[in-house]
Design goal:
It is a single chain. It is built from 21 helices and 13 strands. It has a five-stranded mixed sheet with strand order 4-7-11-9-12, with helices on both faces. Strands 1-2-3 form a three-stranded antiparallel sheet. Strands 8-13-10 form a three-stranded mixed sheet, with no helix packed on it. A hairpin with a 3-residue loop joins strand 1 and strand 2. It starts with a strand and ends with a helix. The protein has a domain of about 100 residues. Helix content is about 50%, strand content about 10%. The longest helix has 28 residues. Helix 14 crosses helix 16 and helix 14 packs parallel to helix 19.
Length: about 575
Amino acid sequence: MATFTLHKETVQSWLPLSRLHIFFHFICVLFLFYYRINNFIISYPWILMTLAEIILSIMWFFNQAYRWRPVSRSVMIEKLPVDDKLPGLDIFFGNKHHFLKIFIINDEPEIPRVVYVSRERRPSLPHKFKGGALNTLLRVSGLISNGPYVLAVDCDMYCNDPSSAKQAMCFFLDPETSKYIAFVQFPQMFHNLSKKDIYDNQSRTAFKTMWQGMDGLRGPGLSGTGNYLNRSALLFGSPNQKDDYLVDAQNYFGESSSYIESLKAIRGQQTIKNNILSKEEILREAQVVASSSYESNTKWGTEVGFSYGILLESTITGYLLHCRGWKSAYLYPKTPCFLGCAPTDIKEGMLQLVKWLSELCLLAVSKYSPFTYGFSRMSAIHNFTYCFMSISSIYAIGFILYGIVPQVCFFNGIPVFPKVTDPWFAVFAFLYIATQIQHLIEVISGDGSVSMWWDEQRIWILKSVTSLFAMIEAVKKWLGLNKKKFNLSNKAADKDQEKIKKYEQGRFDFQGAALYMSPMVVLLIVNTVCFFGGLWRLFNTRDFEDMFGQLFLVSYVMALSYPIFEGIITMKSKSG
């Protein structure tokens, strides 16, 4: 445990065992490929199985970066200065409007100032979506309030714990960490989760395993909501950035002299105070910096503010902040600080998944790719976490191959694994069992259950197979075949009582998601036919030793997929 002035950092207690597991797992992966190469057969099944195992091994390797040094944090709010000594905070609450309009709703001194900002949208100028909106809010708030810290919250989330700001200040104001902290991330949680959470809306893997793992390296990634940001980190490059570039400030930040004065105030320089300007003059200047043409010939979206590199403005901005030398912190308090409404069917989840993963694919092939840009700017192990995120959609290829090739070969009596009596079979068995035990320990230690562990495997496979559409979407965007757009998720709470009832009962609802379910449906049909056909052949030929590995795999898929079968049958019966 490391104790700082205002917070504590605790390394997970089972870290030595986790690293020992990584070591032995890696050795077994090497043995697996030795077996494949040493027993190489020029045949489609052998080649396809080797390809699938290469993909899954690469993903496993990058994934272990999250498990290298996971930490949890706690804060000491009682040691903060009194309220009137705390720094100012601006809150960005996102929504969608198309006309430029700015006015101050409330300006009474004793309560928080509320400012309404509606951004204009011109067909002739790039809109830059949410990233552009956040950069507009950075400029407008810089003129009006200029708080050194910013809270970004989506319109479908609300603050559940008002002490969250003070919790974040325990990192920003800690003298041992304040210089390098760019943002403090809280988990995205929901008030309407069912007990089973069959769609994994709580995203336990992301918000407990991945984000806590990154927190032990240089900090978690930036999510789209529930984060407190250091305004200076978004505007002024690296933590050690000097003020020389303010001489050329207009080329970076635009031509507004009033806004440049606000930047000097953030840096603690001598300024022409904005309080000598009237409220009307400030609002007029705010209209200027909020116009859709203001960013032309500036560094907004590239070196200043939220990045426009991909449409996932939060992910790439957090990544670039880490590349510039900033750190971040992750806090998972017992009382959820931010809550939203989770989708009660799989359609919305799949839409979000495809748009997120397609943009992450584009990050992998962009000029900011973690495989090139990142390796030269941050530690290798922290960069591995971004490598994993950027190519996570290729799980689809590995799972589709592993979900079809062994099963078809089982049906036809072609072995693709060693005999169960062969010592090499132990390598495959160890890799499977060790992976499952690692996953189970992570779930149980995070206050989960065995049923959650089982359900997570199911939804993980389902989402991984569906990510095939993300790869297709990314290729189309990369080739310019798709117009660049970012469809908004449904932010309204679902009022369909039948959907809500099925969700509460832990039953899958695939209504409206037929397209996204098609790869999984194909896999299940193949597995069902091969399971019964292969069993019939197995009873006749008695080659149990040769086929045990494939029989286990197809049986595992069938057992795991039963609730999906039920949901598909329900979907078909309703549509028919």
